[in-house]
């Protein structure tokens, strides 16, 4: 069963004794990815459209160099769950209980909580404080609020 790690993610030896370490790893990695996508895709930051795919790709590489040593950075539930089910057909049900019975939930559930948190962190730190662009829904709301205050 040693080659099952080709299909899905398994923790490094230093994370195998912890049930929370893999979850935190996936939560933070996906939150960073969502934060970076919000920074890059927000038109108010004026990042040229032709650079956005490159910058998102470099963000994924950055996350990979930071987090791959722990779990292989499956920062998307589809990156781990589908291949794990496939490897379960080959190697048996043990792929869901190695190294612990709940480990396989970390790469599936962690990103589901990390992505919204990363997006909201962006909007609380930067997004709500940037001035709206002309024709933007934010500008319409901003003008309405200013007229209501007068």
TrEMBL record:
Entries under Pfam families matching the protein: MIP
Subcellular location: Membrane
First-listed, main subcellular location of the protein, grouped into a coarse class: membrane
One GO MF term: water channel activity
Membrane topology (UniProt): Multi-pass membrane protein
GO CC terms: basolateral plasma membrane
Keywords: Membrane, Transmembrane, Transmembrane helix, Transport
Transmembrane segments: 53-73, 85-105, 112-130
Function: Aquaglyceroporin that may modulate the water content and osmolytes during anhydrobiosis.
Family, similarity comment: Belongs to the MIP/aquaporin (TC 1.A.8) family.
Protein name: Aqp-7
Organism: Pristionchus mayeri
